[in-house]
Write a structure and sequence with these properties.
By secondary structure, the chain is an alpha/beta fold. It has ten helices and seven strands. β4, α3 and β5 form a beta-alpha-beta unit. The radius of gyration is 17 Å and the shape is globular.
């Protein structure tokens, strides 16, 4: 399957402004169970796809990040806003490289922008599969998560399996999107997690990118892990609603 994959998509709301909400590696659209409805309540028509090989979307022959991006572009060629986490942030960045006006505003939540060491990245991601992923094991590793986040993540890991997650690293040798982020031409909110929790975008990188691109504003969420929509939901939503210019409730 070399062309775009037809993605399973779920929706929230019917507002006049359209918003694409993109999950990360080993997750699925259902993982936005709090974020999607909150953005819909703020006036957006929210679309959340399962990426290729994830959730209810079909598997594919390749898992290059630009192929993930091509699937997103096939959904719609213009959005009022795009909010993307981790792998979704990397995929969205590849679309913006190809189509700079794809969205009026973009939020990149601890995006996947580069691989420094492929073997280390694979080992880190395979931790989830060292033992069979269960709600009990995942909850023990992530005690601040809501029980529904834990349940959905276990389901998502079973749907993608280790094969898709590993291929997303091995199919992207030399992966580096830093220069592409510097070239983003629309207002962009870049959010990193707490530096003590090993985010993909630590302050030194986020502040450097914001310094090189006046379209970018960078913030760190204290106490927020890479999965900050799970453990710092209120703080994340505060940033999203402000940046996306949602009316106060």
């Amino acid at each position: 399957m070399s062309g775009p994959v037809e993605l399973r998509t779920i929706e929230w709301g019917d507002g006049a402004r359209t918003l694409l909400l993109v999950h990360g590696l080993g997750s699925n659209a259902a993982g936005w169970w709090r974020v999607g409805p909150a953005l819909a309540e703020a006036g957006f028509h929210v679309f959340a796809p399962d990426l290729r090989g994830h959730g209810g979307s079909p598997r594919a022959d390749h898992y290059r990040v630009d192929r993930y991006g091509a699937d997103l572009l096939a959904l719609r060629d213009r959005w009022d806003a795009v909010v993307a986490h981790s792998l979704g942030g990397g995929a969205a960045t590849t679309v913006l490289k190809q189509k700079p006006d794809w969205a009026d505003r973009v939020v990149l939540i601890d995006p996947f922008l580069l691989i420094l060491d492929e073997a280390v990245a694979v080992d880190w991601l395979m931790v989830d599969f060292a033992e069979e992923p269960t709600v009990e094991r995942l909850a023990k590793r992530n005690p601040t998560w809501h029980a529904e986040d834990t349940r959905i993540k276990v389901e998502a890991l079973a749907e993608s399996g280790p094969e898709v997650i590993k291929a997303t690293i091995t199919d992207n040798p030399g992966f580096n999107l830093v220069a592409d982020v510097v070239d983003i031409q629309v207002p962009t909110l870049l959010i990193g997690g707490d530096p003590e929790l090993l985010p993909l975008v630590p302050p030194v990188l986020g502040e450097s990118l914001a310094g090189m691109n006046p379209n970018i504003e960078f913030h760190t969420i204290p106490g927020g892990s890479h999965s900050m929509h799970r453990d710092e939901f209120d703080a994340l939503m505060s940033h999203l609603l402000r940046f996306l210019k949602c009316p106060a409730s």
